[in-house]
Amino acid sequence: MAAGFGKYVVNALVAATAGRVTGILRGELEDAKVEMQTKAKGLGIGAALVAVATTFLFFAIAVFLTAAVLGLAQVWPAWLAALVVGGTLLVIAGIFIAIGAAKINKNKDLRPERAIAHLTKFFAR
User: Fold this and answer.
1) So where does this one cross the membrane (predicted)?
2) Do residues 56 and 89 make contact, with C-beta atoms less than 8 angstroms apart?
């Protein structure tokens, strides 16, 4: 009869351990979900910034043909006026591209690093 009681104790311990592991795994999966959502949001922001930069580049062409030539042609030769204004717009677009690309590079790895590290540490015990 004592051997039968031991089985119940072992079964209870196994069930408790399984319940604890299941709870930990659920928590880590939720953390991984939140982390991946944050990274996906960063990717979206980076892509939007690149789209903004592309729009600036499109309108830079129109500015090359109009404002640069018409505005600064009064002071400088027309070709120099167009180069100065166009170069300035290219610098602005380059800044937006650099910011957007940095945002994309920072968030392109969609692995939930914190959750993996925590689970690795937990199961290494």
Assistant:
1) 43-73, 79-102
2) yes
